[in-house]
Amino acid sequence: MARIMGSEKVERPRLESKDISDILAYLRWMGTASGTAPREYLVPGDPNRGRRIFEAKGCQSCHAVT
User: How far is CA 45 from CA 19, 38, 40, 49, 50, in A?
Assistant: First the structure.
């Protein structure tokens, strides 16, 4: 994706503060028939578990960490 964005001269978006939480809330809300979803709270992630998942899924073949 980064290569294609670069060739298309599309700037990579930068997420700030609680952008991810807000985006997830929006997507969850859009996925309901009534447009209202129960309040859900996210537990902070575990970076070590994240690394294991990232490696196990082969994400590094398309996505760079740095």
Answer: 15, 21, 15, 8, 7
